[in-house]
Amino acid sequence: MSYNGDLANVRAHAGIRHGQGTYTYSDFYKYEGNWSNGVKDGKGKFTLADLSVYEGDFLDGEITGEGVRTYVNGNVYKGSFLNGERCGYGEFLDAKNGSTYKGSWMNNKREGKGKLTWGEGSDFVEGVFQNHKVQGMGIEVHTHCVYKGEFKEGKYDGKGKVRWSQVLSPPLRSYLILTHTWHGSPLRSPLRSPQAHFRAGSTGET
Question: Closest Cα to residue 125, out of 146, 109, 106?
């Protein structure tokens, strides 16, 4: 362990880290930034044991406030933190599948109003999230189809309506609308094959 930086000059706190400084821990942790009476406080950069890097606010030694955490696998979270966890509004980019979530967080989980987007942003699900999953009324949008209705634990569950659209000859477009009571259908499953649901006896509108 080593420290390089400012120290307090006040006699009662002499020798305590205070001001700008860098502290290298023995287990890969490294903090570069502001100190107040021996604890991380203010703006700083913190390298954690998993080699992810956080840059932003610290309060009383904790990652609390606004900041950005970049992970080794390319994932990035930008937003609010409380005691080291994602809490409040934030945006999370999943580098593996390209999805982006913008909305409310609590205890590192998607919790509250938010929008989860896939790919280039044309496909998304929006609503209230509980424990990472959409719960209650929500909407899911894809290039040629939209679901609007009830969700339960991230699946279509309850009353909902799916609308498919197809371009015939611009600007003409045809629509197929299915109103149905769903029972735990996985996300995106009803949106791929409207014919299958009509053959199953669901009521539809055109």
Answer: 146
Query: Per-residue pLDDT averaged across 27-36, rounded?
Result: 92
pTM: 0.81
Query: Residue 138 is which amino acid?
Result: G
Looking at the chain, which runs of residues are DSSP E strands? 2-7, 17-24, 30-36, 39-47, 53-59, 62-70, 76-82, 85-93, 100-106, 109-118, 123-130, 133-141, 145-152, 155-167, 173-185, 204-205
The mean per-residue pLDDT over the stretch 177-182 comes to: 86
Rounded Cα–Cα distance for residues 189 and 170 (Å): 28
Query: Given a cut of 60, is residue 200 above it in pLDDT?
Result: no
Angle of CA points 16, 27, 30, to nearest 5°? 50
Q: How far apart are CA 46 and CA 32, in angstroms?
A: 6
Give the per-residue pLDDT at 8.
52
| pLDDT tens string 70-82 | 999 999 999 999 9
What single letter denotes the amino acid at residue 197? Answer: H
CA atoms within 13 A on the CB side of 174: 5
Q: Which two tokens stand for residue 39?
A: 């604890």
At 38, the amino acid letter reads: G
Q: Looking at residue 206, what is its pLDDT?
A: 29
Angle at 18 between CA 13 and CA 22, to 5 degrees: 135
Neighbours of 123 (CB within 10 A): 17
